[in-house]
Automatic annotation (TrEMBL):
PANTHER family: SODIUM-POTASSIUM/PROTON ANTIPORTER CHAA, SODIUM-POTASSIUM_PROTON ANTIPORTER CHAA
Bilayer-crossing regions: 22-42, 49-73, 85-106, 118-138, 150-169, 201-219, 239-259, 271-294, 300-321, 328-346
GO MF, one example: sodium:proton antiporter activity
Matches recorded under InterPro entries: Alkaline_pH_Ca-Antiporter, NaCa_Exmemb, NCX_ion-bd_dom_sf
Protein name: Ionic transporter y4hA
Superkingdom field: Bacteria
Membrane topology type: Multi-pass membrane protein
Domain Sodium/calcium exchanger membrane region, first and last residues per copy: 21-171, 203-346
Compartment(s) of residence: Membrane
Record keyword Transmembrane helix present: yes
Length: 348
């Protein structure tokens, strides 16, 4: 509530340093609130629907944030969609997965999950990322790393269809592939708790949406301060997309880590890979539609350094997911790749 009030009072204003700091604190409070209410909803509807609710809700609002930032036009915003989506893929597939594996392995020595569901989700992430972020670098219809209108339309439709197939498989056809793997002696404490009532669930749904709006809205309020800081420090413009993605994905990160601590590693992977799939599968179609009224180029193709990181992420993720078990080593490797991404974003 406080974060939403801060958003309403500060919207449309130029924030001085102190006000931006206050909004940042409200942003952190909204993130914690979103995680709590997402867990309430997840406990009521069960997995994998709970993970899907949080991933889709955050991504839908993230799309609105990207479109709003790009509405200003200019060459500087032409790469916002690419930078934010790629940052989301790196954060989810390396940052969230690595941290979750690390937390689960520290507590239980080995993190256990379902290889079938996680492998299918990873394959979907890799396919979507390649079609939308790698292919534009090599197509020849337009100069530069851009899709032509027809190519962008195809990528948007293909992304949306693939996302729809994934959701159908996750929630209906093979739902059991995305459920936490039970282990003797490691029952989760929330499995024995009474589920919330229907009124409590709907109340949490409303507060979750309010918290997510506050998260992304406050992130937009502090983004000019971030842009000014990036520009004054002489850092690459891509850093803005990285910082925005980090702020927007905080709810998923905290929820995934808390699930890993409860020995529900599959829930953590559902959140991580589901967020990556939603980020691409919903953002690219929305941006493609928005290009009808947005001016300026839309740069989607990745550079050589980021393509190397994407290939490395795909290879390491496959080796992590296929056995259905992971240790501290796999968590450390993913976090090392994530650290390399962050460092090279600031120092390309």
């Amino acid at each position: 509530m406080v974060a939403a009030l801060a958003l309403a009072l500060a919207w449309g204003r130029d924030l001085p340093g102190f006000a931006a700091a206050v909004v940042g604190l409200c942003l952190l409070g909204a993130v914690l609130s979103a995680v709590h209410h997402a867990e309430v909803v997840a406990h009521r509807v069960g997995e994998p629907f709970g993970s899907l609710v949080l991933a889709v809700a955050v991504t839908v609002i993230e799309v609105g944030l990207i479109v709003t930032l790009m509405a200003g036009g200019g060459d500087k915003v032409s790469t916002y969609a690419r930078d934010t989506v790629f940052a989301a893929v790196m954060i989810t597939c390396n940052g969230i997965v690595g941290l979750s594996v690390l937390v689960a392995a520290v507590r239980n020595r080995v993190a256990v999950f379902n290889a079938e569901g996680s492998g299918g989700a990873l394959a979907t992430v890799c396919t979507l990322a390649t079609m939308t972020l790698v292919l534009p670098t090599f197509t020849t219809s337009r100069p530069g790393p851009e899709f032509s209108t027809a190519q962008l339309a195809f990528a948007a439709v293909a992304s949306l269809c693939l996302y729809g197939v994934f959701v159908a498989v996750q929630t209906v056809r093979h739902r059991d592939y995305f459920l936490p793997v039970p282990r003797d002696g490691h029952d989760s404490e929330d499995e024995h708790a009474a589920p919330p009532t229907v009124p409590q669930t709907w109340w949490s749904v409303g507060l979750l949406l309010l918290a997510l709006v506050a998260v992304v809205g406050n992130a937009k309020l502090v983004s000019p301060t971030i842009e000014d800081g990036v520009e004054s420090a002489g850092l690459p413009n891509a850093v803005v997309g990285v910082v925005i993605a980090l702020m927007v994905l905080l709810p998923e990160t905290l929820a995934a880590v808390r699930a890993a601590r409860r020995d529900r590693m599959q829930t953590s992977l559902n959140l991580a890979y589901g967020s990556a799939i939603a980020s691409i599968g919903l953002t690219i179609p929305a941006i493609a539609l928005a290009t009808v009224w947005l001016s300026g180029p839309l740069v989607l193709g990745l550079g050589p350094v980021h393509m190397v990181l994407l290939v490395l992420t795909a290879a390491v993720s496959a080796l992590t997911v296929v056995p259905g078990r992971a240790t501290l080593l796999q968590g450390g490797v993913h976090l090392a790749i994530f650290a390399a991404f962050v460092f090279l974003s600031f120092s390309p």
